[in-house]
Amino acid sequence: MTQPRTSQPTIGFIDQYCNQYKSIFPEVRSYEAFKRIIIGIITPSQRKSLSRIAKIVGLEQGQSLHHFITSSPWTSQELKTVRLKLILDWFKGEAIDIIIDETGDPKKGTHTDYVARQYLGRLGKVDNGIVSVNIYGLKDGIVFPLSFEIYKPKQRLQPGDKYQSKPQIAVGLVKELVKLGLKIKRVLADSLYGESSTNLIGALEKLKLQFMVSIRSNHGVWMLKTEKADANRAEVSSACVRTKQSDRINGASLSEFLVMGIPQLVM
User: Fold this and answer.
1) What is the pLDDT of residues 143-153, one digit of tens each?
2) Which end of the chain is more exposed for a tag (fewer CB within 10 A), N or C?
3) Is 190 within 8 Å of 219 (Cβ atoms)?
């Protein structure tokens, strides 16, 4: 019986890292392509196309890498599961902060699924591109990716797709991480998510997670009776901390708002 050949070595620390994922690749060629793509991703090259990565790792063409992405017998979910397990093992049960944000990348044409004219944060304007909702971990001053999902614009939905807003996608990602056993100290997000009381904020409260989110500068807030604000002279930060604790303000039961920068008042 012919024994399968062993994969070609690359760089020491790359081989050591990728070996933890080896079991999800039934073919040696797939595993080798995986290692080559990892090398291409961490290089300083501004372009990360398959053809460019192929040149970086010394291949004449990128056909084998393209086959790995489109036809090779492995699933992204398997890879994601292994990666998250490795990360959770690193945490050793320690709670961490997570950051919710979206990333928009410009993309010409409409051949790629879910590409549309939409706001791209990288460009700071509406343009043709693809957007993903991402969750990052923050530990010991290190920010690292945890999970993501592509945002699917209504006009580009495929058969079987169900439209979800970005906050709704974020809720699903957070619930997935909690189910896997990730202990979350607090959730950080910008105003897109901070203004989403019926989706993200409500879900975080049900999960009993503390969070710090940005709000728009014209967002109304409750103040204690002992506080006074001059609407024309107060300087209010657009960031706020909202916790799951409740308080009684003016007889109403409300989630406590601690608005950073209030009061910065000229009395």
Assistant:
1) 999 999 999 99
2) N
3) no
pTM metric for this prediction: 0.78
Structure token pair of residue 54 = 């192929």
Distances (CA, A) of 176 to 43, 81, 159, 161, 235: 31, 11, 24, 19, 38
Which of 182, 155, 152 shows the shortest CA–CA distance to 169? 152
For 15, 20, 135, 177, 251, the CA distances from 222, given in Å and listed in that order, are: 55, 51, 30, 32, 12
Residue pair 167/196 in contact (Cβ under 8 Å)? The answer is yes
pLDDT in tens, 55-108: 999 998 889 999 999 998 899 999 999 999 999 998 888 999 999 999 999 998
- 129 phi, psi to nearest 5 deg: 180, -170
